[in-house]
Every structure is written in structure tokens, then in C-alpha cells.
Amino acid sequence: MNLYPRMSRKPPFSVDSPGYEQVEGETLPRRNPMVKDKLLSTLANDTVKTVFEILTRSSQKFGNARALGSRTLIQVHKETKKVKKMIDGKEEAVDKEWTYYELSEYKYMSFIEYEVLWKEVGAGFRKLGLVKDDRVHIFAATRYADAIYNN
Questions:
Q1: For residue 51, which of 108, 121, 4, 113 has the smallest C-alpha distance?
Q2: Cis omega before residue 12 (within 30°)?
Q3: Which of 90, 123, 137, 148 has its CA 20 to 30 A from that of 131?
Q4: Does residue 139 surpass a pLDDT of 80?
Q5: Residues facing 93 on adjacent strands
Q6: Helix, strand counts (H, E) of the chain
Q7: CA pair distance 16, 28, nearest whole angstrom
Q8: pTM of the full predicted structure?
Q9: What is the bridge-based pairing of β-strands 66-70 and 90-103?
Q10: What are the residues whose beta carbons fall under 8 Å from the beta carbon of 150, sequence distance 6 or more?
């Protein structure tokens, strides 16, 4: 069984948070209507409190459904075309280079595969000597394909 995104609630999807004063040029903070009075600090009836627990719960709940999708760059195509441009009040044809990106089909990782990946990352941190309450700053691309498919 595959689970796909769908609308499960009707609008409004967010409401103004109470207790904030209007500041000129800014909008009031907004929250989900179900938790408008305070920030949500746990998920799933107070059983999920950490990122690790979120990943584990997602894996159990969504299994082999697609969690992440990405495409890799196959080739960059460059093409030079003449375009009309106003130069000193005269319309002239000038060269302009256009760049097109040829991408692969999407490759997907399931929630289960994603959980395995993060357990491997966690095991790597442990092997480096990190323990509870240590902090790690991760600087990475906003997509996972390079790390997964290009090794």
C-alpha cells in the first residue's frame, strides 16, 4: 500500500497567534488552528519528542512510501541565440547564451530506507565519540541524491 499526500483538513490552515502586537511592515505570527495558543512540543500523543523518534515513527507509519525524491544532472546544454535589445535607443540583435539542464528520472528513497540511512549516520557519530547532549552542526546541500547515488 502506498500513501500519497492529500488534503485531510479544510481551511483555514493557519490562524493569527494570540498575544502578539502588530508591528508595522510585519505580519503577525501564525500557527496551526489546532495549536494556536502554544507551540506544539511533542507529536503523536506525547510519544515523539526527538528527530530520531520522528524518523522512527515515520518509517513505521509510512513504510515503503516515497519519502525523498531527487534527480541528478546528466548534462548541461548551452545554446547561443540572437535576441533583440535596446542599445542607445536603437533595437539591435545581440547574442545571448541560454543554459538548459538535462536531468535524470526521479530516484526515490522510502521512509524505511531513510530510517536506515539516519541510523547509519547516528552510528557514525557514536563511532566518532559523540554522546547524548553533544551538538553537531551539519552543513549540507538541500538534496540527498549526491550523497546517496554518487558514491
A1: 121
A2: yes
A3: 148
A4: no
A5: 84
A6: 3, 6
A7: 6
A8: 0.58
A9: unpaired
A10: 72
Query: DSSP class of residue 40?
Result: -
- In terms of C-beta distances under 8 Å and separation of at least 24 residues, what long-range contacts does 93-101 make, across chains too? 100/76, 101/73, 101/76, 101/77
pLDDT of 48 reads: 82
Do 79 and 95 contact (CB within 8 A), yes or no? no
CB 101 within 8 A of CB 76: yes
Q: What is the pLDDT of residue 51?
A: 82
Segment 25-47 shows an average pLDDT of 81
Q: How far apart are CA 151 and CA 143, in angstroms?
A: 15
Q: List the domain boundaries for the chain.
A: 72-105
- Angle (nearest 5°) at CA 84 between 83 and 89: 150
CA-CA distances (angstroms) from residue 108 to 61, 81, 113, 144, 146? 17, 36, 10, 10, 13
The pLDDT score that the predictor gives to residue 71 is: 86
Give the chain's end-to-end CA distance (angstroms, integer): 30
